[in-house]
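User: I'm writing a short methods note and want a consistent example. For SLC13 family permease, I'll paste the sequence; you return only the structure tokens, no commentary, since I'll be parsing the reply automatically.
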Amino acid sequence: MEILHSAVAILAAIVLIIRFKIDPVISLLVACVYLGLATEQGADGTVGAITGGFGEIMAEVGLLIGFGVLIGALLHSMGTFRDLVDLLARRVGRKLPYAMTAALSTIFPSIYVDVQVVLAAPMAKESAAAVDRRHGLPWLAGAMGIGIFSGYVFVVPGLAAVSVAGLMDVPLGTYLLYGLPIGLLTALLTTFLFRLLLGRGLWSEDSDLDADAAARREDTAEADDVPYADRAARLPLGVRLLPILVPLVLIAAAAIVDVAGDLPAVLAFLGDANIALFLGLLIAVAMVRPGLGADGTGQVLTAGFRTTGEILLVTGVGGSLGAVIGGSGLEDTLADLFSADEGAPVVLSVLLAWCIAAVLHFAIGSVSVAAITAAGIIAPVVGSLGVDPVVIALAIASGAMFALHVNSNFFWMFTTLLDLSTKGSLKTLTLATSLGAVVSLPLVLLAGLVAAAT
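Assistant:
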């Protein structure tokens, strides 16, 4: 019954938001209350899961969102994104979605997915019209989504990649050897196929953009008369990008050194995502303040704070739904439903691993938790399957991307940061990750042939 009630709760939230135009926070809380009571968690247990899930997500990403949005506001005041888009338009032009998804899937997997979307979203919004006046934003949104999660599950040191490799006892070097080309090809092919779908009338600005949210932010900026930092804008573009580049380098260095061996305490501190982004914020403030002064800088930050509050609330409630689903006992039910058959053909074993991870992700709403849970189910019998463990690990990674939707806190971060409606995010993030999971499956099967031949 946990599966049925979870499905009802998820579908109810989607219908309330899309069909009846009820605010996502209210809709998600209705789904939380229904699911908690229907799965016999009781009144206290349901409230505890809602508040605990909210608090847990805020502990993980609250500061990241706040610092990231404020950095974005300060960079915008320096004209950084505008100048960066102009540069990219000259260098790659309409190929920007491919460049973005390739970079996200191969260069930045050591960066937390929450940090990636917070820092990439402003550039995507700024460059959308230059890429394609009609389909630029949805195309870049889909490219962002699949790029981030292809790297997350396939490329070491992405968190899901490292976790699955460890549970399946696959050396990280071996996993990277197979996972890196699969992750890159998945991101590029999915971005191409997604653009074809957009060309067939998939996107509608009237229903897929959250015009009200965008208008509120524009009104706030106008009301506050947010100033422009002309003096800072005269700095070289590379210098103005330091508030983004410094955190990325620190986080990546800490992740890579941690995988390679002992992590020095100083690097562990500076490479923590919260500390690294805070340093980026300090750098941004130091650049803007000489040109705007204390009052002007305060106005820019105030506009950023207002945007941050909206994002934090809807992201936290998304975490609440995930916590209530977790407390329903759904993971144990799914583990009992699936069992790996010893001696099964290679194709069947790969498909089974893919399906376990896909169903877990759709139900739980966390790519990493779905991948880790699926690996925990299959790892005890992987030796008897007659398939190289790296292939099963890659199949789990592939399936764990499937259908990222409303029970994921990342979904709501993505939605609010890109000014999309819920329907718009379902058409971009959910569709792109689902398409990526399907696109990567034959690549995993091909990897199985290569592994068997070596």
